[in-house]
Amino acid sequence: MDPCLRKRDEAEEFEVKHLNTFVVVDFETTGNRPKEGDRIIQIGAVLVRDGEIAERFSTLVNPRADIPPFIEKLTGINDEMVADAPPIEDAIPSLLKMLDGATFVAHNVFFDLSFLQNALHEAGYHPFTGPLLDTVELSRLLLPGQEGYRLSDLSVGLDIMHDRPHQADSDAEATAYILLHLLDKLESMPLVTLQHLQRLSRPFHSDVQTLLSDIEQRKIRQGAYEPSTDLEVVHQICLKKRTTVEKKSGRSLEETMDFDAFADTLFGERGVLKEHMPGFELRPAQVTMMKQVYDSFDSGRHLMIEAGTGTGKSLAYLIPAVFWAKRQEETVVISTHTIQLQEQMYSRDLPILQAIFGDDAPRISVLKGRNNYLCLRKFSHSLQEEHDNYDVQLSKSQMLVWLTETETGDMEELNLPSGGQVYWKQVQSDAGSCLNRQCPWFSRCYYHQTRRKAQQAEVIVTNHSLLFTDMGAEHRIIPSYKYAVIDEAHHFDDVASRHLGDSISSYQLEGMLHRLYPDRGVGLLEEVEEAVRGWNTASYEESKHAIETAYQQIREGKETIREMYTLLYQWSHQRAKEGEEIGHTVMRYRQENLDSRWGRAVVSAVRNSVDLLLTIGKKLEAIYADIHGDDVPLGMKSLVTDLNGMVKDCLEYASLLHDMLLTEDDDHVYWIELDTRSTRKNIFLHRVPINVSSLLREQFFDKKESVILTSATLSVNSSFAYATERFGLADLLKEDGVDTAVLASPFDYKKQTLVCIPSEIPNIKGASERHFTEALIDSLSQVAVTTKGRMLVLFTSYAMLRSVYEPLKERLKEAEITVLGHGMDGTSRSKLTKQFRSLPACVLLGTSSFWEGVDIPGEDLSCLAIVRLPFVPPNHPLVEARNQQLEEQKKNPFMQLSVPQAVIRFKQGFGRLVRTSTDRGIVLIYDRRVIDARYGRVFLKSLPETNVLIQPTGQLLSEISDWLA
């Protein structure tokens, strides 16, 4: 019998002694398929008994087959090394002796188990039938915030020595120490959490439930009911105790000290920064920026400041922001482009600020969108739902462990499985279903606690998305502020476009109806019906007919909406073009496009969907009106509030569908985006203002005293004209009403970077795609051999990346250089970047998301290749609409929009190579337009001063080799 299919009740019959004795096993093998001839070449085993390592066993194994080259490269084990090693039938008895009466443990246990069972079968033994533990599964459960669960990730995260990865003895040893850490953590877990976990772990793949049950019973026998003093049990869920938010006066700085004098005390041999920042170097540009930011606040003027890589701009704006906030008793908002940058700033820069200001340490709050926080009421309710879905049960279990550790309730701290992202939507905080002060969890609510902290903060760190959400919510989210710093400002207007527009997806609509009344299981409406029936017979009789009608309408609504999306998909699929994101295609549409026979069918389906959503919304509203009131029991109040949230969603989605597909506004652009990777055929509808500059000016800049806009890439050809146009500040720039500054990077690009333009590469405009791609592959393969990999190749098109991937991989196989491709070897940028850094010789092919935010300092990245100048595809709906608008104004859209946009993106890509003052490397540019086209010079001029070589690849190789040497 396949060990994966062992009955769960069999696992529960194993004696308790199994659970005190564990044998941690790792096999190195010739491949991944034992039933197809792959064999064990090394065994590593570690016996763990009563919380200690009691015995070790390791041996090489003669597989009686050749070891493939890639396995030899991975493990360091070759044919010669195993020639005199025992065959597997001679090695097995020692391992079986250890396994007698023990739990079999491995990292990805079913991989190692499959090889063990195959070896036992071939050697004439019975299969192993003892309990199994997978340290990947156990780590996911008990380390919910861990970034990755590979053996190497866990070893680093837990500070475990793992000096010989892919050697069985070293891997088994590292896994044994991981197991010991996890067992210790389980032993310290509060009883109430263990009891929840034990119930939820039924669908887990290995015998985690048996282990949890054993520890739970032992704690009950010992009478260990109370959690540790830093934890508290609330409504049968164990939480980490949080410090209460107290209103503080916020001690002011010495009135006599001016900012310039304060800044001067931070630098120098005895300065605070030198003391608290290892390797601190004085950077004049950082000091200049600090003083310019403070002066702008002081004079009440806006400032645009481009600060080159390495300037240290985070501290250069945080220090004056904190000083100003404390001195003037004003709130300053810092906004970043991504939540990750928020986190980075909080963890990296806040401790430095606390050291700088000492007793006057600032009160800084990180504020994110409401959906980033867990709703404890919804989560508590979801624990009562029976579920067999592995990802959902694992997610619930991870959250229970996380709740004993988190003070924020912020999902960024969690590493959920893919299905857990869907479950999160069910338990996230949102305004529509909030009971506010009536909620039994209100005093512990993570979102409201964060809001309270923000109200008391001097500096609030948020992100562009929430900034615009706050504008749309009439400034009810972020506390009132007049001073702001916008970091990564080159994204500001794009984020504004998205958030000042509207979008709706098939996933959202179908998910809402599924939550109300699923095809299987119990939905919200059924829960409401059950609660009303149990509470008040008269109320139930009054609402019974409305509830039954709502069931019928929802069933009909599901069918109608499914039909609408099917028609929309068919209508747009043939016309859609490749978007910027992998697996996404886009199609712009106007009302006139819906006049065809097919278009009219789409319109009819949309009208039916809108009508049904309105009908469902009104019916739910009537049910809500019948059953809500002050006398409703507290438990039922939660359900009624959730129902009211669904009413709002129904009516809002009906309104959005109507506005997006049945009406048109000349100031907006409309498009459909299709997710072609998904079997579900997800569809996204977008409606975005074509020009947000006037909205930004009126709704944001004119309402603030001083806004600092900063980025490493704001200027084009030493001019801020393009950026000010986008932000609605063009007239202020002309009237000298906004300050600007360009601060050069402290890096010496002439000494650190060599720019190479291979002259044999054909011009993109003059050559066929095939001719260009062949020349590109030839050049990349030659350079990759010279640089020994360590190369990041930036593409603007996923189609071209795909056409280069296989041929380049084949060309570099002999040189033992790995090729990784975004979308080919995975879609996670962070995982691919980690993999790239861990491999000794690797070429990483990346698309749009790799042009910025990728940070690979040191020798791991020595060569950056830019395949094409990063022009946004002119057929993207928003670009197309903006181009048309500029043409109507008798302007040149290519020079005024396309070129500046591409230059800023190009500068971002160029910035991936040099991240520290000691980095050194090559930038290859394969687009001859930088030297052939008149506008091409603007790209090179926008880079820092550096060395440029234009030669055939064959001649460049020696120059590259000398430069890197």
Strand order of the largest sheet: 10-11-9-12-18-8-19
**Outline type:** globular
Question: What percent strand?
Answer: 5-15%
Number of strands: 26
Q: Which residues sit in consecutive blocks of at least 5 with pLDDT less than 50? A: 1-18, 247-251
Helix/strand class? alpha/beta
Radius of gyration: 31 Å
Distance between the termini: 58 Å
Helices, strands, pairings?
Blueprint: H1 8-11, E1 21-29, E2 40-49, E3 52-60, H2 69-75, H3 79-82, H4 88-99, E4 103-106, H5 109-122, E5 132-134, H6 135-142, H7 151-157, H8 168-187, H9 191-200, H10 208-222, E6 231-234, E7 237-240, H11 259-266, H12 272-276, H13 284-299, E8 302-307, H14 313-328, E9 332-336, H15 339-357, E10 364-366, H16 376-382, H17 390-403, H18 418-427, H19 446-456, E11 459-463, H20 464-472, E12 483-486, H21 492-499, E13 502-505, H22 506-516, H23 524-535, H24 537-573, E14 577-578, E15 584-588, H25 597-627, H26 634-661, E16 668-675, E17 683-689, H27 693-699, E18 706-711, H28 721-727, H29 730-734, E19 738-743, H30 749-752, E20 753-758, H31 769-787, E21 791-794, H32 798-813, E22 818-821, H33 829-838, E23 842-846, E24 863-866, H34 877-888, H35 893-910, E25 921-925, H36 929-932, H37 936-941, E26 947-951, H38 953-964
Parallel strand pairs: 1-4, 4-5, 8-18, 8-19, 9-11, 9-12, 10-11, 12-18, 20-25, 20-26, 21-23, 21-24, 22-23, 24-25
Antiparallel strand pairs: 1-2, 2-3, 6-7, 13-17, 14-15, 15-16, 16-17
Helix pairs in contact: 6-8, 9-10, 9-17, 11-13, 13-14, 17-18, 20-21, 22-24, 23-24, 23-26, 24-25, 25-26, 31-32, 31-38, 34-35
